[in-house]
Amino acid sequence: MMNYIWVGLVVIALVCGVITGTITDVQQAVFDWAGTAVEIVIGLIGIMVFFMGLMKVAEEAGLTEKLGKALKPVMTKLFPGVPAEHPAMASMVMNMAANILGLGNAATPFGLKAMSDLQTLNKSKNIATDAMVMFLAINTSSVTLIPTTVIALRTAAGSTAPAEVVGPIILSTIISTTIAILCASLFSKTKQWKWENVLAREEAAGTLELNENYVPWENIETSEDLAKAMKNTQKAEAKGKL
Fold it and tell me: Do 197 and 191 meet the contact criterion of CB atoms below 8 Å apart?
């Protein structure tokens, strides 16, 4: 979808340039901003490498487990369908921690891993569970206490007060995340969008595809069982089945 949006913007710019007779200015702007983009990216490298390295150190040092325990009461309320000991909990916690620090790039791998882990608890192949929807809503709205990337961008762009946006960003993301959680929770309880009802409608229509890698948590008794479940999910992802 993003590819279509960007292509559309380029086409619109070219068409408008031709119609208004400013196509030369459009071409010049392309070259000028291409150079600016490179300068901004280079300026981001130091900050992004530092914080992504910090997140990796935190992961290797066992911070994932500690964060999981600290956030366990909140996570079990937000994701009642996910067992507290499930690997998806740790992945979601690390994703949220990275987003809180404003590290979107560092949060992405954890988010993908979380969705992969959550899929092992999904009976359906193509219908997102309530936990998936809730996680996506939180991940998209994302409470941000330290907007690292934004500060880095403002610094690279020459802002004299790059951190002055911290207060507004904290307030706006708290509001957006609260609304996202409320909406996801409310919709999951409505008759039309309740997960069980959606599955029933798909089954009645004959379009329900079962997830061949679904592993009920109660059936996982050993670490070998869990490793097998994760391996099956990764294989399915590689084949584009999930």
Answer: yes
- Please indicate, yes or no, if residue 39 is contained in any of the structural domains: no
Domains of the chain: total: 1
Strands (E), 131-219: none
pLDDT digit string, tens, across residues 123-181: 888 888 899 999 999 988 888 887 877 887 788 778 888 888 889 999 999 999 999 99
Q: Is the pTM above the cut of 0.90?
A: no
Q: Is residue 73 part of a domain?
A: yes
Highest mean pLDDT, choosing among 75-84, 173-182, 206-215: 173-182
- 213, 189 contact by CB (below 8 A): no
* DSSP secondary structure of 209-240: -B-TT---GGG--SHHHHHHHHHHHHHHHHTT
- Domain range enclosing 196: 45-238
Name beta bridge partners: 210.
Answer: 124
In a domain, 32, yes or no: no
Whether residue 9 lies inside any domain: the answer is no
